[in-house]
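Note to self: keep these together.
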Amino acid sequence: MPAKDLLKPASRLLITEFAKRGVALKPTISYQLLAAAYGFWSHESIAQYGVPFEPFNEQYVNGAKPYFQLGMLRARISSLLGVDAEESKFLTLLVRDLLTYHYPLRVQALRILFDDAFTHSREMIFKILSAEGNGPTSLASAEIMAKRLPELPASTLAGHLRLMRNQLVDVGRGVRTVAEFISSAPTWIWCYPSAFMNEAIPSLADVGFHTWQPSDDWVPGGVNPRTEIGVGFVLLQHRSDSESPISYTVVSGVYSLNSTTSTPAWSDVKAIGDIRREVSGFRKRTLPELLGHPVERLPLVKLCPKCGDLYAAGAANLISCSCPKG
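Structure:
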């Protein structure tokens, strides 16, 4: 969904909530405050860099909470609204809470990290996201770009899929490799799935470390061993299930930082199998509702007969094989 469509409800929310404080907020100013909340100097810069946003599930702990630039936001509130220091502080925290709990929204950092569309703007966007304090953020993606974490074994969705293919996964019917799972039945791939799909949580992980929050489980090197980052996609198959007429096997993937040595390194990608049952009568949205279309319209993962790589049919711009292009 375009950023403007996601930011419009946030703008309306800010206008409504500021009015309750007796602060009249023009729509143009509301967009400037939204931009500042995420570290961007202006709303126009968000459009210039094509920054993607996504709703997130506030109950999802693995990197769900967005990283706000509260110092910049407070300065912009003071300058644009002319309020005193105490009111500026209150309104800053109000914006943070609104964008965390009432209309949860975050920058889609994994897409920026992995998608070739951001090749020329990636460095600048992450520099903005991690600018405040010039220290570690809550995003592993930003830490990687700032070279405070090592590079991942792969830098694209296709690379992650290539590394996953020989990993073992338990899909409820015995352990097999991801490649064997894909070859057993039609398999769809959802790139950058919704955070409201609980089974996708490992693939959406983006958890950095905080050197200013020491804890008992820290190890030499100052890196929290729970630092994780997902592969940015899930694999889906229909499955027969006596408990639900519509159910899917879901395979996700995640890297964890092995920080038990003096030179932390990423683990091999871990493939995780799960089962999603679409049960009528529950408030949980179904996959078609989350997608906006039937699951069958997702790209199918196939094996290239020439190079042997896996690729996404119909989405080669995201996941292509190794065959020469053109």
